[in-house]
Automatic annotation (TrEMBL), chains A, B:
SUPFAM superfamilies: Adenine nucleotide alpha hydrolases-like. Residues 13-174 form the UspA domain. It comes from the Eukaryota. Signal peptide: none annotated. InterPro entries: Rossmann-like_a/b/a_fold, Universal_stress_UspA, UspA. The lineage of its organism: Eukaryota, Viridiplantae, Streptophyta, Embryophyta, Tracheophyta. This is UspA domain-containing protein.
Amino acid sequence: MSAADEVVEVKARKILVAVDEGEESMYALSWAVNNLLVSSNNTTTKDTLILLYVKIPRVVYTTLDGTGRRMNPSTQGYLFSADILSSMEKYSNDVAQCVMEKSRRLCKDLQDVKVETKIENGDPRDAICEVAEKLGVDVLVMGTHGYGMIKRAFLGSVSSHCAYKVKCPVLIVKRPKSSSATRE
Amino acid sequence: MSAADEVVEVKARKILVAVDEGEESMYALSWAVNNLLVSSNNTTTKDTLILLYVKIPRVVYTTLDGTGRRMNPSTQGYLFSADILSSMEKYSNDVAQCVMEKSRRLCKDLQDVKVETKIENGDPRDAICEVAEKLGVDVLVMGTHGYGMIKRAFLGSVSSHCAYKVKCPVLIVKRPKSSSATRE
C-alpha cells in the first residue's frame, strides 16, 4: 500500500446542526457541510451529522380542561376546536418534514458521514441545549437568527442563548447579504 | 492520473483565530486546526490561518503632557516614570511573542496552510472585529473567555461582542473541564 492509498483514521465526531424554516439555517448547514465535513478518499471521518428541528408548541388550550369543565376564555387563553388544532398540528408537521427534506438534500454529496434527523417539541433555546448535552455532540452549528424573524421577536436570540449555555464549541453562521452558501 | 491521485482544488479560506495568554484560546486554536484545517494528500486547501493577538494598552500617562506642562496626578491618572513604562512595554511585547510562539507550535503539523501572525493594540472587542472585517476572513475562531479571567472582568465577554458584530461565521470554542485539545 503506497502512502497515497493510506487511510487516515480520525475519531468520529457528532455534529449537531439546528435547522429551521429560515434561509439562514440552511446557509449555516451548507457552511458546516463544506467546511467541517469535507471528506476525501484519504480521510474517513465517519462523522455523524444530526439535523435538529424544534417545533414550537402554540400556546393553545382545548375548550375543556382536564376535569371536563369549560374554561373561561378571557383568563385561560384562546380557544380552538379540535379540528383547527388538528389542522395546526398537521401544518406544523408538514413544515418540519419540509425543512428536513431540504436539509437532507444539502447533505446528499457527503461521503462517509451518517446523517440523522431529529424533531423535538418545545422552546428551541432549551431543546437545542438539551439535545447537544444529551448526545454529547462535538460541535453545535446554527444560524444567528434561529427560528425566523417573527418567532425570534418573542424568543429572543436562540443562538446567543445556546452559545452561552452549551459546553461544546458553537459555530454561529451568519448569512452574508449576497451569498451562494458554498465554500469560499 | 488515477482517481486516487486526483487533486481536489477548493477555494482557499482565511481563518482568523484570536489568541491570548489563556489556555482556552490555545484549546480553541487546536480545535480549529484539528476540525477546520485537516488536510490530506488529496485535498489542497491553501488556506491562510491568521493568528491575532491584541495587546491591551494600559491607561497610563507620562508625567508631561504634549505641551511640556506637568499634569495634575489627581485628575489626570497615575504617573509612571519612563523606565517603568518602558519595562511594562517590554513585558507586554514579551507576552505577545510568547503567545505567538506557543500558537505557532500548535500549527506546526499543518500542511498546505499558510500561517500568519498579527499583533494589534487596543480593545480586543474592537480590534478583533476590525481585523476580521478588514481582511474579509471566512471564519473567526475564539475561546469564550477571550483575554483571561482578570481582563475579562472589565472587558466583558469579548466573544459574545464579536459574535454579535462580525459578519462572518464565528466559532466559539469552550474548553471542557478535562480535555487534551485533540480532535475528539
